UniProtKB/TrEMBL annotation, chains A, B:
It comes from Senegalia massiliensis. Keywords: Isomerase, Pyridoxal phosphate. Residues 10-226 form the Alanine racemase N-terminal domain. InterPro entries: Ala_racemase, Ala_racemase_N, PLP-binding_barrel. SUPFAM superfamilies: PLP-binding barrel (SSF51419). Its cofactor is pyridoxal 5'-phosphate. Transmembrane segments: none annotated. One of its GO terms (cellular component) is cytosol. One of its GO terms (molecular function) is pyridoxal phosphate binding. The keyword Transit peptide does not apply. This is Alanine/ornithine racemase family PLP-dependent enzyme. The lineage of its organism: Bacteria, Bacillati, Bacillota, Clostridia, Eubacteriales.
Length: 357, 357
């Protein structure tokens, strides 16, 4: 059968390899990894590759993605705070969720009781990034007290998220807020706090330095399993693959044209006024993919002599002047994808997905 | 039944109204409108709203979207240059396509002959924006000569695109290149050039000034039908609706917190180092939607006293300090969407679509 384009090839073996690597590292320091699959929009294939790598809990940010994963052999965690309007689905399709509002948790408890389940609650604590989580310690204690009273939910532990909205790095200092609260909860309510879910891939930099506090026993990893890269300090984990996701797309136009647009400039299709340098004539190619499906800043051509010039919703425009390969209309160009480009391409229904074992 | 969130409400009556308005304006100057539906990813409902407004040709940039529109009562135009690998689908699901490469057109002709159809070709001419199109006049004439020889395709006319990649405005001067070529083609090959497809919504600014050249008899309109706005000069067409697309999403967290993140800043989830002003404590809300589904720069809260502070892939964070409304967890906030946010939200499978008659 003819291959269809544009297409993302996902190398499942590479994802399993990366996962095994991180599971081993984390096991040695007493940390369990939640395998965050959200960048794939709920791909069953990738979730299974994570499970094969040793993951026991799969995390997704959208309950619709977890619906599609109902038959995989892992516990399921909803990473984004649940919507009240969606509480019935949350308890049906996930086992654990991250929460910060007692009103929502109360509704989850009601819906759990209806179906005879007990839903696990991780209470999110905001340690400074100012996305989700209870900020005030007294509020946190009051919320835990109420959670314990509810019959349909179980208090599983505390969690936090960093390096997202506010760009705040996880450190021994800000994570200490979780430890303080853990101790207070255990003393005040005479219960054991099972889980301290200390962050996402950005916490890997603490592991690298041997500075992840030992009370943290869970991390929610996506990027690091998919790409082997630690974004906050731009390092890589040894012996991991960065190219598990590859985009292939077809050349639909190839012509020698000027390098600088001719006429009166206004805004482009995305509202910016573009600026161009005059480099004389160049060999320009257009590929059948655009900003609807990918993000130009988060991808690069595998042929290093090709440069991305720009794009619109449906097109990317490339400079092929300096490549040694003799491309023609209908030929396929390949790109390595980074996080945001993976997210966009997995979201777009106009990109074929091909899973390599 | 409970409404599901997040949800985009599309007011089809408003789109039909905007379309009628533009069809009337264009009819009076001898211009036919292609109704560009691509921002909706092939919505049958919106395509029919455009048809009800007087549109006879529906345009999409992806052939997969046209597949889903096979039963609508209009001619179908593929706006993006076809992929050779996809030529069979192109002639099967579209009647007209925009082209610039004879190799692709030859393949379209072959595939057309196989199914006994005649596919119409509009030859794209690059008048300066440097996206798709033949740049050189001699090349254009040679390409037309070859198109005429092919049995499976029909030369329908010339087209151009502006205000996309290079941000070049359509003007009487740059459009004149099409007219010159039209005259040459008609003289040299003794044929009539039926269609001069002179651009997209950005050409509306020429209509406003009464300066659209009279040889232009087709325009491909999307934005102006959906939003009634002329982006290049930031004006609006009288008596049109800008709010045909409305986003509704639920509050999943609502708390008083500081305004400035606390700790050592690095990059956020999208690779930027965010900067924040300290405004003291504020009432912050998180809504269940993020940059996977929308674009923060292309939307605004309908409650004007709410400010968007930022977001990550799955969250938007809002300042509710100054609103007079008494919002709670589970309440629904409304946003007006502009072009890129409409595109993202229609692309996301995690947003419910609700069509209002």
């Amino acid at each position: 059968m003819t291959k269809r384009y544009p297409r993302v090839e996902v190398d499942l073996g590479k994802i399993t390899h990366n996962t095994k690597k991180m599971v081993d590292i984390c096991k040695s320091i007493g940390v369990e990894i939640v395998g965050v699959n959200k960048v794939t929009c709920g791909s069953v294939e990738v979730a299974n590759a994570l499970i094969e790598g040793g993951i026991k809990i799969i995390g997704e940010s959208r309950i619709e993605a977890l619906k599609g994963l109902k038959d995989i052999k892992a516990e399921k965690m909803l990473l984004r705070l649940p919507m009240i309007s969606n509480a019935a689905d949350v308890v049906k399709f996930s086992d654990i969720s991250l929460n910060s509002e007692i009103k929502t948790i109360t509704k989850l408890s009601e819906e759990s009781l209806k179906i005879g389940k007990k839903h696990k609650i991780i209470l999110m604590i905001d340690v400074g990034d100012l996305r989700e989580g209870v900020f005030d310690e007294e509020d946190a204690l009051k919320t835990v007290e109420k959670i314990i009273e509810l019959k349909g939910v179980e208090f599983e532990g505390l969690g936090t998220n960093l390096s997202c909205f506010g760009g705040i790095m996880p450190t021994e200092e800000n994570l200490e807020k979780l430890n303080r609260l853990k101790t207070k909860i255990e003393e005040k309510f005479d219960i054991k706090v099972n889980t301290i879910s200390g962050g996402n891939s950005s916490s890997t930099h603490l592991i690298q330095k041997g500075k992840l506090p030992n009370f943290v026993n869970q991390l929610r990893f996506g990027t690091i399993l998919m790409l082997g890269t630690v974004e906050v300090n731009d390092t890589r984990i040894d012996d991991t693959f960065i190219d598990a996701y590859k985009l292939k797309t077809e050349i639909i136009e190839l012509k020698k044209k000027p390098s600088k647009p001719i006429g009166t400039a206004s805004v482009d299709a995305f509202g910016s006024v573009p600026v161009f340098e005059d480099k004389g004539d160049m060999i320009r190619a257009i590929c059948a993919i655009g900003r609807q499906d990918i993000d130009l800043d988060w991808m690069k051509p595998i042929d290093e002599n090709i440069e991305i010039l720009g794009g619109s919703s449906d097109h990317i425009i490339l400079d092929l002047t300096h490549t040694n390969n003799n491309y023609d209309i209908g030929d396929v160009l390949e790109f390595e994808l980074n996080y945001v480009a993976i997210l966009r391409s997995m979201t777009s229904q106009f990109i074929y997905k091909d899973y390599l074992k």
